[in-house]
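Hi everyone, sorry if this is the wrong subforum. Our group has a chain we'd like a structural model of before ordering constructs, and none of us has done structure prediction before. Sequence below.
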Amino acid sequence: MQKYLFFILVLFLWGSSDSLWAFPIYPRTISDVYKEADYVVYGKVVGFIDDSPPTSKEGVPPPPSMHDGFAVIVIHEELKGEIKETQICIADQRSFMCPEPFHFEEGQEVLLFLNKDRKANFYWTFAMSYGGKEVTAEEYSLYKKKLLDLQAILDQSNQEIQEQQYIDWVVNCIKEPLTRWEGIFDLLNEKEGANKELVANPYVLTQKQKEGLCLDLYQQQELRVMDFKLIPHIRGTQDSVLLQFLLNKMKKLPNTADTDDLFLDAASVIADLSSRADLKKLSNQIEEEKLSKKGRALIRQFRQIM
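Answer:
Right subforum, don't worry. Here is the predicted structure as tokens:
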């Protein structure tokens, strides 16, 4: 057993670190994974290779491994980096639970953001599950355009022009359902300190961009937490219309515990837009209590008087 203590210690430290692989893994958008990955490819999963080491004759299990085998990918197109092979092996980490890896299935069409183990000659998805996307042909075409546009921005030598082009790119991502959450997350710019950003925080939107994002918000059939995180960035235009839209949406939600979590973000936004002292006081209390028993009672009170 002692011979495996080293591997156990490594796994413990690996799970406790602040690195990319730390628990829990920090969300990565398509701009994050594109900038950090060495290779970006579109391809198809055509099979798997088992690489699990056998149990010894004495019945001792093998030491922990970073992968269970390999997914075999036939490359259709490369968007970043140069890979000589038309078929590559990617580490398959399906036994991991958290951080969650990308789950390969035979027959999948996939967009992959990869790095390479040059000694062992295999690839792995950057940022675990964020480094892979199962896509249709139509979705791939959209992602491809977004990523080619992003590369053109990265190639821009004029920093002022680059910043404005990047903000335009982020806004356009928000307007596209497929990349909406990633665009909002990029706009929030709540990134890890080590990540170099193209634009200083906070991003400054033009009046036209704010109006465009407001119109896009009004078209959402269902509001999510990320939508409420977007609203502080688009305030200052149509605030009264925005408030009425939010009130109409939130009042239609069933008054059940299942929808309470949305009010953790919605309460402060609605209180700020309404400028009502009673709602502001309640939203501050909700922020402190979260989803405790008292917090849920405060949320019910907020819902009754908003």
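For your construct planning: Strands lie at 39-50, 69-80, 87-92, 109-117, 122-125, 132-134. The first helix runs from residue 5 to 16.
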